[in-house]
Model the fold of this input.
Amino acid sequence: MEPLGNDTGPPAGSPINRPAKPLTKPLANPPGGPVRNPKESPSESPPVSAPRLLLFGAHPDDCEYHAGGLIARYRSAGGPVRMISVTDGGAGHHLRQPEELRQLRRLEFARSGRLVGAEAIVWDYPDGELQCTLALRQQIIAEIRRFQPDLVLTHRVNDYHPDHRAVGQAVQDASFMVTVPRIVPEVTALRVDPVVATMVDLFTVPAALRPDLVLDVTPELPTILAMLECHASQVFEWLPYNARVTPPVPDDESERRDWLRNWFLHCVAPRRDRFQGALRDRLGIERLDDVLCCEAYEISEYAAQPDPASLSRLFPSASCR
Ligand SMILES: [Zn+2]
Done:
């Protein structure tokens, strides 16, 4: 669903894929599994200061592609992370049938989440057919209230993919409403809005992303790649097909890994060019060639407005405007 060479991320699941401890050790300090409600199990609770991160992506690989570095940093610090794919991922393939693909992508997403100890949840909206409905907004409001995140991430509404736009709009529409008790009254309203931010993209019409925060996530690159590798039906099958990649993706596992690394770096290189000013001036990076991958985030005006101290907590080691 996502064209290769365009930094929009690869594309396109209901039940909660329960998290487990990480399968590999890409993180310097791999944490335990995520905590659904810290109050329920004090012995497994993250440090009080660890912020909670909730992501709404349109498809099962969107969160990792657009925000994998920040996800890795949260998990390294012990912060609970919940990734949601709003659609079921059933459209992102040229050969696999929708039901097979839905099941496969649910497994791929769950595996990616387990890798870092994040929850990976797939909702039932059909891939490629998402609309910004009242029902979707209400489901997002309930989700934000139940998880009680410090930071919510999603797509911008300026995006090539209709599913991305629908999710971005629905989260934007839910941002203030999470504090209104008469809306979705069956779930207790929040007294304080979380901070809401949009994930990196390079689209410019009608407006480019304002890089309120920029992160050099080169240290997190191995984790990002390991998560993306879990989405084999996308990164090794659908995306290369859709982009008419030649020569074909190698079959050998090791060669595939190298191919994935080269492909991802090729896709995200334009981010460095776009945000080079922030990388150089705000982060003090002189050799931009050393930045293999960066992420940028724009803070929503429709939710909590963080002060510099809050930004430093929510976006560790990031540059601030
Ligand atoms: Zn997508």
